[in-house]
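Duplicate of #3305? Posting structure anyway:
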């Protein structure tokens, strides 16, 4: 079994064990520099209830400091018999060190109330640790299934526990619109609701017959942003445009191309996209303005994936726009539209974050690309000079099935085991050093067509998200056997945190979903499909 000082996930970069250890007791003081008051308050709140050690302020005991010699997210944790010294390059680095400290204590200390046990002992030694990538993201789709705020905050805590630092919120899609936009009340009174939901993969054409919906108020979103920021996580919002817009068009048919109808109840890509006329463009600008007001981060997501141009072929509004701006045809409308949104965001000092489809026809300069259509687009984006977040579906789509076990709930996508996720490298092969430097990191995506509750999200995310955390934090060339040896203790931590993870032996009976059958794919089939889907990128001007 690994040394207690490295029996952590993600594994720290360097650790030197020593004899002895530090005993945490109710009198142990916490001495935090003023700039670290937030980390100190959080640490008291997280360790106090389960240990009975409330860390009163005072010298000695646990000491938290910022050290300019360290990189912003780097930390050094020195544990001796008489005290713990934690230094970080910034408050974020100190927080990562504090998460390490939580993992060095027994799993029972992660619970929310006191159990018999203790004394609580931290093994002695020195850990020096820093992430390999600056973007260690998780995308949560709250459009296909709405997730209540409390569940989002819980996920934020779990993300922070694994030293991940970006939460990409996919806020709108064909099946639901999840935020208020001033002046457009029907987006939520109509667009946030659907009368029924498809059960399982679309080939089976089953429905549950139950209404589903919900949306976040401005204060809900502000709370999520603030809660995440307190944990050094940036929330990147996304409103998908100009496709994946059926919920908005259901609410306001004037935004569409002559279609009117309900919020979509089935999965798959809707043909009902925005028109490129002045009203729809003003609408999108109003949406982006509101996102800028609520989300302080530099990047604002405009989606841009899977936008079929078919409705634009016959719509006079689209044809007029094509004439007006001199485009070769409807296929070029999306890149024209994306450029307008990028200009608008630039006026607010923000940048576009979009799926790799926005590379077709040339993405706006400064756009950050979320490269998802298999392994190819990340390299394409970097070669075109764009910063890129690698999230290839065949490596990190956590909605994809975890094994070939027929009891796997709603098995969709290609098989993506824990080992596959652990082996993920955000940097695609064949890049120059300068191109590789444009890869900001990686992101695991949680599309929730088949995850209607936090419990189902837990099942799909864990423990694969633990493996993902190691893939984006740790060095290239990791050892899965070593990870597997550390996993049993980590699963005890997840038990203490109340996570419904998938056991390594397979799904528990209550995780199976015989009512919601899937549609498993082979990797070869998916790779051929992706080659066809991304053929447009080879024509895109670099
Ligand atoms: C995507 O998976 N449609 C970005």
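Output from current build:
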């Amino acid at each position: 079994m690994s040394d207690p000082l490295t029996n952590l996930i993600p594994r720290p970069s360097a650790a030197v064990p020593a004899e002895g250890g530090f005993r945490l007791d109710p009198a142990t003081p916490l001495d935090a520099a003023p700039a670290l008051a937030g980390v100190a308050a959080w640490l008291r709140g997280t360790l106090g209830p389960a240990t009975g050690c409330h860390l009163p302020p005072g010298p000695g005991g646990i000491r938290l400091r910022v050290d300019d010699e360290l990189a912003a997210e780097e930390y050094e944790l020195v544990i001796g018999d008489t005290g713990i010294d934690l230094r970080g390059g910034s408050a974020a680095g100190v927080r990562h060190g504090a998460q390490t400290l939580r993992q060095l204590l027994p799993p029972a200390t992660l619970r929310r109330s006191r159990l018999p046990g203790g004394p609580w002992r931290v093994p002695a030694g020195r850990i020096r640790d820093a992430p390999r990538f600056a973007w260690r993201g998780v995308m949560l789709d709250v459009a296909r299934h709405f997730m209540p705020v409390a569940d989002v905050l819980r996920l934020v805590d779990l993300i922070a526990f694994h030293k991940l630092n970006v939460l990409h919120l996919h806020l709108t899609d064909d099946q639901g619109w999840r935020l208020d936009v001033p002046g457009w009340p029907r987006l939520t009174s109509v667009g946030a609701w659907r009368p029924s939901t498809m059960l399982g993969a679309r080939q089976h054409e089953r429905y549950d017959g139950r209404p589903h919906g919900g949306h976040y108020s401005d204060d809900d979103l502000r709370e999520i942003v603030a809660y995440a920021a307190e944990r050094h996580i940036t929330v990147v919002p996304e409103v998908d445009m100009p496709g994946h817009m059926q919920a908005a068009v259901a609410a306001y048919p004037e935004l569409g191309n002559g279609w009117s109808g309900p919020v979509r109840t089935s999965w798959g890509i809707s043909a009902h996209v925005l028109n490129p006329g002045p009203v729809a463009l003003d609408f999108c600008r109003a949406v982006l303005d509101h996102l800028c007001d609520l989300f302080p981060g530099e990047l604002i997501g405009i989606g841009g994936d899977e936008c079929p141009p078919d409705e634009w072929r016959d719509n006079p509004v689209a044809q007029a726009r094509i004439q007006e701006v001199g485009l070769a045809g409807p296929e070029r409308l999306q890149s024209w539209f994306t450029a307008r949104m990028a200009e608008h965001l630039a006026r607010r000092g923000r940048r576009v974050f979009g799926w790799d489809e926005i590379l077709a026809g040339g993405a706006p300069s400064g756009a950050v690309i979320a490269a998802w259509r298999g392994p190819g687009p990340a390299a394409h984006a970097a070669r075109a000079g764009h910063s890129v977040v690698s999230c290839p579906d065949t490596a990190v789509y956590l909605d994809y099935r975890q094994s070939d076990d027929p009891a796997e709930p709603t098995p969709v996508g290609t098989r993506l085991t824990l080992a596959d996720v652990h082996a993920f490298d955000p940097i695609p092969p064949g890049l120059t050093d300068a191109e590789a430097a444009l890869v900001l990191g990686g992101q695991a995506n949680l599309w929730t067509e088949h995850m209607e509750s936090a419990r189902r999200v837990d099942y799909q995310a864990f423990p694969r998200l633990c493996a993902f955390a190691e893939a984006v934090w740790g060095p290239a060339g990791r050892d899965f056997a070593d990870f597997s040896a550390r996993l049993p203790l980590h699963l005890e931590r997840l038990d203490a945190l109340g996570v419904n993870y998938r056991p390594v032996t397979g799904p528990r009976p209550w995780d199976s979903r015989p009512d919601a059958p899937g549609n498993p794919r082979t990797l070869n089939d998916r790779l051929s499909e992706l080659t066809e889907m991304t053929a447009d990128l080879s024509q895109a001007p670099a």
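Confirmed duplicate; merging threads. The CA atoms of residues 398 and 446 lie 5 Å apart. The pocket of acetamide is lined by residues 305-306, 355, 372 (CB under 6 Å).
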